[in-house]
Amino acid sequence: MARPPRAWLRCIEGCSDELPLEGFVYRCPRCDGLLEVAHDLEALRIRSAAAWMKLFDDRYKRTTWPYGSGVWGKKEWVAPGIEDDNVVSIDEGGTNLFWAERYGRELGLSDLWIKMCGNSHSGSFKDLGMTVLVSVVNQMIKRGTEVRAVVCASTGDTSASLAAYCAVAGIPAVVLLPRGKISTSQLVQPLANGAQVLALDTDFDGCMAIVQQLSKEPGVYLANSMNPLRLEGQKTISVEIVQQDDWQTPDWVIIPGGNLGNVSALGAGFLMMERLGLIQKRPRIAVAQAAAANPLYLSYQRGFADGLRAVQAGTTQASAIQIGNPVSYPRAVRTLREFDGVVEQATEGEMAEAAARADLAGMFTDPHTGVALAVLEKLVARGEIKPDDRVIVISTASGLKFPEFKIGYHEGTLPDVASRLANRPIELAADFAQVRDAVFEAGELSAAR
Questions:
Q1: Beta strands of 48-138 (E only): which ranges?
Q2: Residue 241 to residues 117, 390, 391: CA-CA distances in angstroms?
């Protein structure tokens, strides 16, 4: 008789103990190393690769609870032990692949796609991981475990997602934010969903240090990406990208990197598909960092020879990746080595101009995606990405969450940004002739572009 799928926590350094998904353990009790979720692959091989693909396709965006979710449609690969009634879902995943035809053509690429993860409930890819984490907490509570609060440090997107999912489940959420360092749109999200918001006079790394201390208190549950449950949901990005292309693997995936959990999650999804026979090749992975907060890039330049040297993160519009001491550095390095990966950085000017170029081709780009697009442009310019490569850029959040960035660019007020493509309103009298001339001029400008 076939054994059912199961998952557990294990140390990424190879310690042999199996730890349950439900609990308050985030590091290896033996060596203090990071943890990851492991799966019984032999149990999953009860289905063939073709059968898994058919099952995932049959569930995709349907209404049978909870399998229409882009995450829970892959439940056996994520958290098979969570009872369906304990799942906390807001129909996350299922975000579109945008064919960036015009923008790609400008770069000399014919097969450029943007994975629009910001088209999610809270406006970022964080929803993919938060549904798993909050579902596990919900099951813990239903089974009698006392959880006083779920806490996270955030530069915006994590706090918004945590607050939304905890509000759905009725679980107390507390978020620690660096005061004055996130957009108003991001700040209002956890406030609206009823989270307790603590604005601290520090940066993200300072908030994270306090959260790690808090997680040692009884009944306080850690929701940052140090917790591997977050990464299990995020790994479904890889599966969904391949699924949306009729189970074909791209040549490159470019992803912004801050705390670096998303990088290892991306790799984990591709590795699981490879091991279960759904794909036959791995893509190359490029991690994009802001030049103001670039510890992984600096380590990559040293060949990862001496490990992580934390940096003091400088000011960047890409606030979600303004992190100088990334918790998931060891996971990210392992993934880059497995995927022939590269790391590149982008200045504020490079990021803002790349975002503006993409916007002119129909996007509305957040600054973190702007960093990834600037890195794309660099890799194309030096020939690492070839004209016929199929390239996926992960857009991690909605541009609507960053109005100050968009307004500042077009008003020419962003520091260290030339705003070469700024588009400002033309103020006219209510005069037909002036309006007609402006309309014809707009048509000529559009044709020139």
A1: 97-99, 112-116
A2: 11, 12, 11
E-strand ranges in 261-331 read 284-290
- What is the per-residue pLDDT for 443? 66
Instruction: Tell me how many degrees the CA angle 158-161-164 measures, rounded to the nearest 5.
Output: 145
Q: Is beta strand 173-178 parallel, antiparallel or unpaired with respect to 196-200?
A: parallel
- DSSP character for 365? B
* Whole-structure pTM value: 0.94
Taking residues 58-68, report their average pLDDT.
Answer: 96
Q: Mean of the pLDDT values across residues 394-398? A: 96
Give the whole-angstrom CA distance, residue 400 versus residue 402: 5
Is the peptide bond preceding residue 218 cis, with omega within 30 degrees of 0? no
Is residue 342 one of the residues assigned to a domain?
A: yes
Rounded Cα–Cα distance for residues 19 and 33 (Å):
13
Residue type, 431: D
| pLDDT 10s digits, 109-148 | 999 999 999 999 999 999 999 999 999 999 999 999 999 9
* Domain containing residue 401: 97-120+231-411
* Contact (Cβ atoms closer than 8 angstroms) between residue 344 and residue 379: yes
pLDDT of 441 reads: 85
Q: Please give the Cα distance from 34 to 184 (Å, whole number).
A: 33
What is the C-alpha separation between 51 and 142, in angstroms, rounded? 33
Instruction: Let me know the angle formed at the C-alpha of 184 by 160 and 70, rounded to the nearest 5 degrees.
Output: 30
Residue 57 backbone phi and psi in degrees, to 5: -65, -40
Contact status, residue 270 vs residue 282, Cβ threshold 8 Å: yes
Q: Is 152 within a domain?
A: no
CATH number at residue 303: 3.40.50.1100
Residues across the chain: 449
Q: Are strands 284-290 and 342-346 parallel, antiparallel or unpaired?
A: parallel
Q: Which residues pair with 27 in a beta bridge?
A: 34
User: Is residue 250 domain-resident?
Assistant: yes
Alpha helices (runs of H) in 341-402, residue ranges in sequence order = 348-359, 367-381
When divided into structural domains, the chain yields a total of 1
Task: Identify the three-state secondary structure at position 220.
Answer: strand
Are 132 and 112 contacting, i.e. CB atoms less than 8 angstroms apart?
no
- Quickly count: other Cβ atoms within 10 Å of residue 33's Cβ: 16
- Give the least confident one: 38-52, 359-373, 387-401, 435-449: 435-449
Q: Within a domain: residue 190? A: no
What is the CB-side half-sphere exposure of residue 115 using CA atoms within 13 A? 30
Residue 180 has phi, psi (to 5 degrees) of: 75, 10
> Are 199 and 179 contacting, i.e. CB atoms less than 8 angstroms apart?
yes
> pLDDT tens across 239-277, in order?
999 999 999 999 999 999 998 999 999 999 999 999 999
